[in-house]
Amino acid sequence: MASMSAPTNSDWRAFLGRVWSGHCPRCAEGALFASRFRLRQDCAECGLRYRREQGAMTGQMYLSSVVTEIFAALLVLVVFFGTDWSTSTSIAVGLPIVIVFSYWFLPKSMGLWVAIEFMTDIGNREPWIEERLPRS
User: Fold this and answer.
1) How much is the pLDDT for 134?
2) Which residue, among 2, 46, 5, has the nearest Cα to 23 in the 3D structure?
3) CA dist 46 to 28, 83, 95, 97, Å?
4) What is the largest distance, in Å, between two alpha-carbon atoms of the chain?
């Protein structure tokens, strides 16, 4: 990113869209993940560091937890008001759905957290967002 000004709404949409599809928020070319649940250290294309320091992904854990809890609460409301299932049937159906959702959302939350940190640090001119040469 050439300019170090605060991101606009279109920048936010672009950055979030890039990480949602598993790509670097800055260049949109580098892969975000080494494997399904393993975030790369940095972008192989532009050098953007995804994991800057120990504990940098703590926010991602909160994001994942909150979104999964909201999903579970909505599922409980749908089952409670939309079906006449017993409690045991509701748990037997709902629990696997929530578990599958949480495993599906975990890498998405990692990527979203990288994008959120990237976007908020642009305006602060943090050194980790400056252009870097790709590793050889």
Assistant:
1) 40
2) 46
3) 9, 51, 41, 37
4) 60
